Amino acid sequence: MKKGFTLIELVVIMALFSVVMLVGMSFLIGSKNSFQRSQDASEIHYEVRKASDYIRDEIRNADFIEIGLIPSTPDPFFDYLYVSSGQLIHVVNGVAYTKTLDILIDDANMFLIEQALNGNNAITYTIDASLSSSVGTRTYNAPTTIHLNNITDYLGKRGNTYTAVSGPCIKYTKP
């Protein structure tokens, strides 16, 4: 009797090896996709939080604030904050600076000034973001309310009635 494998034994071993490799590759591909989804979530959360924190830090202590349209020619005596082409833009002295990556979603009525029942003014906004990668598109939004410390008059007052004001751009000055 000769030593070695028969053809049937060789085919069975190859089939078992193929099944083990298939399970291993499925695990590796699933792990890679899970890692990519986690990385996407981390990036989108970071960019939305960065934009939200930046807006909060800029306008919380503003002494003048107005919501309106994005100006074609900014007034150099005011600062402006708005989202354009997926990026948070801060205009200072008439010069625009980009503050985030281009994953934010432009929103025509992103900012809303409201007055609470206690008479405090607040700006409410939601930053939406979207990121596409090899594992699909991930979206995220962060609703935020900022109480304005230095503004006590009715920001939305029109005659004798109060109306909330919304728009895509914040125009403001800081002390």
How is this fold's topology laid out?
Elements: H1 7-59, E1 64-68, E2 79-84, E3 87-92, E4 95-98, E5 111-115, E6 121-133, E7 136-147, E8 157-158, E9 161-162, E10 165-167, E11 169-173
Antiparallel strand pairs: 1-11, 2-3, 2-11, 3-4, 5-6, 5-10, 6-7, 8-9
Can you characterise this structure?
With 175 residues, the protein is an alpha+beta fold. It has one domain (7-173). It has one helix at residues 7-59; strands spanning 64-68, 79-84, 87-92, 95-98, 111-115, 121-133, 136-147, 157-158, 161-162, 165-167, 169-173. A five-stranded antiparallel sheet has the order 1-11-2-3-4, covered by helices on one side. The protein starts with 6 loop residues before the first helix and ends with a strand. 19% of the residues are buried.
Give structural attributes:
11 strands, alpha+beta, 36% strand, four-stranded antiparallel β-sheet, 175 residues, five-stranded antiparallel β-sheet, rod-shaped, 1 helix
Contiguous runs where pLDDT drops below 50 for at least 5 residues:
none
Compute the number of helices.
1
- What Rg, in angstroms, do the CA atoms define? 27 Å
Tell me the β content.
35-45%
Tell me about the biggest sheet?
A: 5 strands, antiparallel
Number of domains: 1
Q: Overall mean pLDDT score?
A: 85
How many distinct beta strands? 11
Major beta sheet, strand line-up: 1-11-2-3-4
